[in-house]
Each structure stands twice: as C-alpha cells, then as structure tokens.
Amino acid sequence: MSATLRFLPVFLVLAAVLAAGCTQQGSAPQQVTAPAITPAGAGQAADASQLIPQFDAYAEKTFNQSGVVGMAVAIVKDDKVVYLRTFGVKNATTKEPVGPDTRFQLASISKSVTGTMIAEMVGNGELSWDDTIVSVNPAFRLSDPYVTEHVTFRDLMSHRSGLPEYGADDLQNDLKYSRQEIMDRLPYLGLTGAFRSSYAYSNIGITITGVTAAMKAKKTYEDLVAERIFTPAGMYNTSARFRDFIASPDRVELYPMQEGTPVAGPPVDDDINSPAGGVSSTINDMVRYARLQANGGSLDGKQVVNASTLRESHSPQYIKSYSGAAMTGSGMGWNTFLDGGRSRIEKDGMFSQGTATIITVWPEEKMALVVLTNKFPEGNVVAGSLSNAWNNLYYNGRIGKDWYAVAQQELQAFFDSMAHETQQKPVNPQPHRDLKYYTGSYTKDYYGTARVVEESGILQVYPPGHSTTPFALEPYDGDAFREEISGVLVKFSAGTGANATGVWFTRYEAPGRSGAFIRAGM
C-alpha cells in the first residue's frame, strides 16, 4: 500500500471511471483557536491562519470534483482543534447536510480502536502484548499446533501470525457464518505465511484479539471498548454495535461504486468482525479520539491510556519496507511510516458498499487528521489525497502535487488489475452427462456443505453456510460448468459410480483453503 493512496482490495469488482462533478457545497469551516505551526523547510514560521485556508480550498476543490456524497474533516494540533468542516449531504435524496454529529461507519479504523483498548489493558497490568491467545482462551485453535500455542496479541494485532490475507472474510461476507462458527472453522484455514516473519492483512486476526481481551475482562468486546475507550474519552456518539449506527437519527447513507446518480446501498452490518471494522462515530467524537492518539493517551487532563503502551501500539512490529530514511511497517492496529526521518501512523477504512475513512497521526507534532466519507471508491481517493496534502503543507509550506490525480491513476490501475476474465467456451465442447449425475451434497471442512440441485433443467448450487441465494451453472465442457453470472468454472470429478464424486469451485479456491469439495457421505 503506497503512501499516496490508501485503500484495501475488494474482490469481484470491475474497472470503473470515477464519478466527478459533484456540486454540493460544504459548510463553512468552524472558527477555532489555531496554534502556531511551522512548516519544516519553509523560510519562515507560518501559523494556522496561513496554512488552514490553503488546505480548506484544496479540500473543497477535491470534494467537489470527486463525486463523494458527504464528508467530514478535522485536524487537531497540540490538543486543540485547528480545522473542522463538513461537506455535502448524508442522504442524496433528502439533501440533509452532514453535520459535526452525523454518524459514519469507520470500517477498519476500528482496528486502531481495538489496539487502543488493548493498550489500556496492558497499561493497567491486565494483559501483556506478549500474552498468548490460548492462555486466555484455551479453546482457541489454528491449523498449526505450534502457532496455536505461541501466537500472541502482538502477533495478531500486527498481522504477522501467518494467517492468509483476508482469510475467513469469505465465511462472513459470502456464507453468513456467525462469529463463533467462524472461530470454530479456523483450524481448517491453512497458514500461508511464516510465523512472525511475514505480513498478511487479517480482519479475523484483529477480531480474535478483541474478543480474547474481552474474555479476560469477562465482558463482551462491544461493552468493554465502550467502558475503556468511548466513555472515558467522552465519545458518546460512538459504538461498536451496528444497531446503534442504524438507530442513530443523524447518520449517513452509504453509496457504493456505480455510474450516474448516486443510489444508497444497504449499510454494512460488521458485528461479526466488530473489533476489525464495526465501529461507527462522528467527526466531533473522532476529534476526541484524534486528540487522545496525538497527545499520548491524555485527554482533558485525564490519562485515559498509558502513554508508554499507547506509544508501543503506534510502533512498527513488522517492517514491510525500509530504505534510508523511509520505512513502512505495521503497528498494532496501525500502519506506520517514516518519511525523511519523520514518523507518521495512520489507519484507513473502507467498505465497498460505501465507506472510506482515514485517520493520520504525527506523534512528534502532537497532530492528527481525520477524514470520514460515505462513498466508495471515490472516498478513498479523497481521504488519501487530503492526508497527503496536509502532510505536504505542514512540512513544506505548500501542496507539492495533485494528490487527487495521482490517487485516481493508482485506483484505476488497481481496478484494471482486478478485472475478472470470463472463461470462454471451447470451440468443440464435450456434452455433459445427465444432470442428475451431478446433483447431491458436497462438503469441505473449512466451508461446510454445498448442495447441487436440478431446477427446470438447470443446475443450481446452494452455497455452504447460511446464504440462501443459489447460483446457476451453464454447460461448459463435459463435466465442467460455468457460473452464469461470474463466468468462473465449476468442475465435477467423475467416478465409476452413478454420481460425481466431487466438485471443484473456482470461487472458493484461495490461499489457505481449497475449492475442492467431496460428495457427502463418501
């Protein structure tokens, strides 16, 4: 992930042209007391009255050209708010404007919240970063017995456990398994990375740590994070429960990627992975969270989180790249950067259904920026652009390049690389057998049982788990079929009996898990 554009990969997403030309006007920026800010490398000191207008103009221009529906932005410096402005609307139909108490889903910024909660527990002696998960939860299991016995809070929070990238997300998003059902299936998820010497981004890894820390306190994660972080930090419009986001009378609608007029999509219920992505908040509350992070865990004269343990969560536990005075790494719930000898931590978040957020903290400067948006992927471009713009402006006294254009190019290149290539039918395909030969139940330890049935002369696959939506197959070549909508292959294994002995689903083939199912009962 580059410093110019921060976004997480999405699967089965096609290349698209970003919408532009949004004409919604932002609100006037709040008038706040501005501390002196000296841009590094500038010939003379510049206070916020010199820097903030430049940033505000860039933020307004970037928002208006992006197609983002609603946005909220804040900057804190030396424990004071130097910029807070809301843009656009929370609902494109009603045109209700975004306000400072409008609630957004934070997506993966939630990981930093979980890291902060555990830092609070480490600071008061309840836990150690190096406590093993199994020491708190003896029932915990991964596929490797050694890793099961030795993996720690530090390992999982910094994505160095060996779990595959986005492993188990499919059990939640596609197959609708519960949190406990996903935990029960982790022993069947292969570890694809070297323990403690490889990096792979893992939502379930963060959820394991949050849930395990809550077990230590004999509470639910959702109650514990409120007790240890939200309440003492005065974040009263923040919650780790989806129902609280939905019930809020002042919340955004979510707008996923599409062409033309924005149409709201369903909000994202991420309760299963709440420690990794389920927190919702407002820009007013996130200002308090940003102050907490930038001010060593202190807020309004109260030490909410021990400064030393919070600083440890901000520190790289795994180095992704290093060159001279530049470094990228993974902290505990944070991405860490070193640019020209200056440190920066941040966490971005996204839901492809329509959320893009970022928080960036400059610890040595006691400074932080927060951007919340309700549109994907345009919001990713805007959030990363504004973070880079402020970084340039603060250290150099000017915004050195068009970060928005750079981010657009990188995003388009990413979508191009993710575009799915449909399997073309062979010129002389072999006929398939009687469709009843393929019907039946097929099972895989990690995924569960899929059913293949014939309905009106078409094979329909009912997926494992709790999904009730089947997908249809069309003939491809002999015992191989193709999914009608996605075009990916499904291949049945022929035996000597009256039915196929197994089936291989391309859609389920992924690192650490195989798409090869066997007929149930064999």
User: Helix share of residues?
Assistant: 25-40%
Shape: globular
Radius of gyration: 24 Å
Got a strand count?
A: 22
Strands in their spatial order, largest beta sheet: 4-3-14-13-12-11-10-9
Structural class: alpha+beta
- Major sheet description: 8 strands, antiparallel
- Mean model confidence by pLDDT: 90
Distance between the termini: 45 Å
Poorly predicted ranges? 1-38, 40-46
Strand content: 15-25%
- Which oligomeric form is depicted? single chain
Number of helices: 15
Sequence-ordered SSE layout with sheet pairings:
Elements: E1 36-37, E2 46-47, H1 48-66, E3 70-77, E4 80-88, E5 103-105, H2 109-123, H3 133-136, H4 145-150, H5 153-157, H6 169-173, H7 179-185, H8 203-217, H9 221-230, H10 242-247, H11 274-277, E6 280-282, H12 283-294, E7 298-299, E8 302-303, H13 307-314, E9 318-323, E10 326-330, E11 335-339, E12 342-351, E13 355-362, E14 367-373, H14 378-396, H15 403-418, E15 440-444, E16 448-455, E17 458-462, E18 471-477, E19 480-483, E20 489-493, E21 502-505, E22 516-519
Antiparallel strand pairs: 1-2, 3-4, 3-14, 5-6, 7-8, 9-10, 10-11, 11-12, 12-13, 13-14, 15-16, 15-22, 16-17, 17-18, 18-19, 19-20, 20-21, 21-22
